[in-house]
Amino acid sequence: MVWSALQARDVTPREWLTLPLTFLYANLAEYWGHRGPTHHLKRGLRLVYERHTNYEFLHMSYHLRPDHPIARLGAIRRLERLHRTQHDPRLMAHRNFNITYLICDLLFGALQRG
């Protein structure tokens, strides 16, 4: 992404503003999508609710043995701690809805550190 941005020419400040705004919008969509239909059953979204943990590789990596090479990666360890905290039955309907970047959890006071 940085390399692509460095290749841009004649970009106005207003156009540069689309980068952080788009990032924030994507983070908000992740937060609301995870906070809503994946943790609270909504009409027409039962499948999303029932299968929200099948986001394939990442979810699988959170359940690997701690000595597995993938489980030892710093980013995976951080995400695994968030995943474990988010699925604590006392917290799961109220905390840690962002999966990748914690921006909206911080903005909305929903971050619970593991």
The 3D shape can be described as globular
Distance from first to last alpha carbon: 30 Å
Radius of gyration over all CA atoms, rounded: 17 Å
Q: Number of domains in the coordinates?
A: 1
Pattern of helices and strands: HHHHHHH
Number of strands: 0
Reported for the largest beta sheet, the result is:
none
> How many DSSP helices?
7
Derived from helix and strand composition plus strand pairing, the structural class reads mainly alpha
Strand content: under 5%
| Global mean pLDDT | 85
Give a verbal description of the structure:
The protein is an all-alpha fold and 114 residues long. It has one domain (2-107). Helix content is 50%, strand content 0%. The protein has seven helices and no strands. It has helices at 2-7, 13-16, 18-35, 46-50, 57-62, 74-86, 103-107. The longest helix has 18 residues, at 18-35. It is globular, with a radius of gyration of 17 Å. The two termini are 30 Å apart. The mean pLDDT is 85.
Topology:
Elements (H helix, E strand, L loop, with lengths): L1 H6 L5 H4 L1 H18 L10 H5 L6 H6 L11 H13 L16 H5 L7
What tags apply to this protein structure?
single chain, 114 residues, mainly alpha, 7 helices, 50% helix, 0% strand
Short structural description:
By secondary structure, the chain is an all-alpha fold.
